[in-house]
């Protein structure tokens, strides 16, 4: 797919696709450039972004020279190296996003929309990102991808009280999970963020959020070695 077949020039010019890729992963060592079905993991995110925009509006934010080298081998320019202070286990996503936005602002590029594509969602598709973008409007803080949770606070999620007894997290006279209100979990695949909201507050303070629901397979987020093994099985099954 060519970029102009996906997004209008106006939308592309005001949208930054950000792919954060920190080195030093512990759950899956070197996961961002670890080959999945013969392709470094981060390439999946780059491919999705390239199907929607041009390289000019795609940014890989990394602190790691190995990741930088792998990205450049894929003919993608890495515009800056992320400061070490923003690449620790304690570093927050919010600061990483602001760092990228401010970098481009200093270059005279004032993006209005930020699309965050984490490398750990290799089964997310460009069509899904396009659909999430189509839901966005500037009266929102964010459109975020979710998957419906099998665990429900009205049914099988519990909290412990001061006496050590378990109680349902939310009260409700439901005897079957399917009768409970649907609940959703962020799956980490797609965040379409209003930059104006972002510069005012971190994501967890957003109140005007719309969901983009994804299926279980494309929602897979690679965090552990078991996740990786499942991804290998799935990629093999779709060859």
From TrEMBL:
The keyword Transferase applies. InterPro entries: CMP-NeuNAc_synthase, Cytidylyl_trans, Nucleotide-diphossugar_trans. Keywords: Nucleotidyltransferase, Transferase. One of its GO terms (molecular function) is N-acylneuraminate cytidylyltransferase activity. The keyword Cell membrane does not apply. Gene3D superfamilies: Spore Coat Polysaccharide Biosynthesis Protein SpsA, Chain A. PANTHER family: HAD SUPERFAMILY MEMBERS CMAS AND KDSC (PTHR21485), N-ACYLNEURAMINATE CYTIDYLYLTRANSFERASE-RELATED (PTHR21485:SF6). This is N-acylneuraminate cytidylyltransferase.
């Amino acid at each position: 797919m060519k970029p102009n077949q996906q997004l209008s020039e106006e939308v592309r010019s005001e949208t930054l696709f950000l792919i954060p890729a920190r080195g030093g992963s512990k759950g899956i060592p070197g996961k961002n450039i670890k080959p999945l079905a013969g392709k470094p993991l981060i390439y999946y995110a780059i491919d999705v972004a390239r199907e929607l925009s041009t390289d000019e509006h795609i940014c890989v934010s990394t602190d790691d020279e190995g990741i930088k080298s792998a990205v450049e081998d894929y003919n993608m320019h890495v515009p800056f190296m992320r400061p070490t202070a923003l690449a620790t286990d304690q570093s927050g996503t919010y600061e990483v996003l602001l760092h990228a936005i401010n970098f481009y602002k200093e270059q005279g590029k004032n993006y209005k929309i930020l699309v965050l594509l984490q490398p750990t969602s290799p089964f997310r598709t460009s069509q899904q990102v396009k659909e999430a973008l189509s839901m966005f409007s500037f009266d929102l803080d964010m459109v975020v991808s979710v998957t419906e949770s099998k665990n429900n606070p009205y049914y099988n999620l519990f909290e412990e009280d001061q006496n050590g007894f378990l109680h349902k997290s939310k009260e409700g006279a439901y005897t079957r999970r399917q009768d409970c209100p649907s609940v959703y979990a962020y799956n980490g695949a797609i965040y379409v963020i209003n930059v104006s909201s972002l510069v005012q507050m971190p994501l967890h303070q957003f109140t005007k959020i719309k969901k983009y629901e994804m299926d279980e397979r494309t929602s897979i987020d690679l965090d552990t070695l078991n996740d990786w093994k499942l991804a290998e099985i799935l990629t093999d099954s779709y060859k």
